Protein 1
Amino acid sequence: MVKKYLRGLINRIYKILPLKESGYNTTPKYIHSLRKELTGFESLMAAINYDSRYGSVISVLKVFEDEFDELSPAYVKSEVFRLITLCNGIISKYAEEGDDEV
């Protein structure tokens, strides 16, 4: 479950880059929805022992949500790739044996 969900999450986080570059005004709503989902996913948080990296992902998404229009594309890109690295770290540590689904 962990690997499959977080791989999907990486794709959804990566989607923020073209949204920033294109200037869609729905981007903060997209980020809000994503952040709320992560905040409410109690079974995932328990499965990864409340890893602080998960909290970091949620926190950065909150900054994106609140300040997205003011953030530079370069900053957003940097943070998106940092979030992806955090997710990959969680996957490496907590993915179940045989959980090879992508």
Protein 2
Amino acid sequence: MIIANYTFDKVNGALCQIDYEDPSQDLWKSAGIYHYLNNKKNGEGFTVFRDGAKFIGQFKEGKRNGEGKYTTGDDRVEEGVWVNDIKDGIYKVTYKDLRQEFQVWKNNEFVCLYYP
């Protein structure tokens, strides 16, 4: 259930939008410039989840798709490419203490880890 939906402007068929959603859902709020197709977000934006995690990047058909940055509630940052909302490729992971590692994922399955 959407509690509030603010649409600010139409630009070339795009909507700049902020949604505040039901706190019982995992998704808490999102904003961005989206083109809607079949009522699903396409474009650039961000999503903040109830647990404090957030995703900034590209969406296609309402899913993370393309380059993005996912920050967990404990401030771990994962940068990489998502395909249909799953990890697929090399992700640079930065921890709160600034340690970094690279993770390889295929179809949302962890493959291996290496350090810079």
Protein 3
Amino acid sequence: MGHECGCHSGGAPAVLDVREMAPRIRHPKIFETFDALAPGAAFILVNDHDPKPLLYQFRSPSGCRPSAPSRRWVMSPITTPAPSR
């Protein structure tokens, strides 16, 4: 995911493919990636299901991610096969 500083400068957004990750570590990894974004940076999340529960977590009043409502979300369902093992 980009170079070590996490700014993702100088190119296309990083891609985080969580399809092969254990379900229990998916959301923590997504939050970690989100929190590492520099202002104006983006990442592409590749998932094997509709991420509505994740979006609700980001927007929850409990303050899971207070900066999330000011972020721009682009959700586009793209059907691709999971990577082969």
